[in-house]
């Protein structure tokens, strides 16, 4: 609609004053302020969604700085072996884990050519500096004869689980001697040779989750022969596992992912999603469990957001030149790393911006394992070509300070499983002691998948970010909305009344 008004601007005295013009102009200014307030509100919500508080910001310069490195060779390994065993060549660094206080790095490795052996080593990492060329080895111990591509180390570093990939054994080792050596805790000998290719400690290391074929199960350490099968078996072999709190994520060789909620073992629910077009190689939860990072043999890493109802929304695709073998969240939750081939890429978790990339000294190798130091300023990287390398993260603040020298407290080894204490569940409604071989009743509640995906999504995810923030920030929305209304009433309605008068 065109209003019949004519403006003559030749002199101020001839300017025609029309009340509705002022109203429109003031409405425009008010709407501009409202728009800015809305943008601020969404920005605050997005920051909350990503776990970043106001003023934290990003370091001005974040990058990898090469630090100490270790090159394994069969001659040195044979010299370290107290029993004089023969070791083959080409060491795979299969698992890495720092102790919670940062004093030690625990590493498992396997030699794959010649006579295969699997071993564990411990290193002093209490006072690392970028100028170091080596780190002090505290202990070497042979575990079994054979090649293992994967191993699981508990958070305290005092227990290790090994599974024979194409065999019927699952080994558990526990630090139990006065010297702190790992002793065989138990051996699960299955009746067939179904593939064992994934396992991880869960629920504060009190239970072990493992996959045999497509079936995911839990082992109660208090009764080692009893396995609790979880609902939602995969159509193909389970190859990747990760957990955070009551959440257990698993991925198979067909590209599917399941996330089980273990809050109540009598009514286990799970969600499922077709996440990758090929094998799921690695999974990693954010420290708060709100996000899940997945890596696959389809050369993709994908970032998922867990909604309030437990559904997962895809918020970012990241494409690479090779298989994504390992993904890992930083302990601070604001960054993550993705490994493909000999390279490790560092990302900002909030907007998925790539900050830096490291390439291992042997650029023909493949990264097999990653571990962040608990202080957040170091990354340990192991490959399939004899190398263990440490990198300092320049620009990262220290999350903790290592104040003591590494010690490994011996654990008393029970002589009978009947006297073994039943571990307490964390945040679980049913005590572990209530499960026996004939009492386990597990009913499945399958939550229908609600997955937002976009195969061509290369950047962004702003809408998913805003919605994810809004779903989990109702109180803040209410507070900011109230402020919004008050400002609206003060800036708009009084002025409109004056102009009409």
From TrEMBL:
InterPro entries: WD40/YVTN_repeat-like_dom_sf, WD40_repeat_dom_sf, WD40_rpt. WD repeats lie at residues 273-304. Gene3D superfamilies: YVTN repeat-like/Quinoprotein amine dehydrogenase. The keyword rRNA-binding does not apply. Keywords: Membrane, Transmembrane, Transmembrane helix, WD repeat. The chain crosses the membrane at residues 466-489. PROSITE patterns: WD_REPEATS_2, WD_REPEATS_REGION. This is Uncharacterized protein.
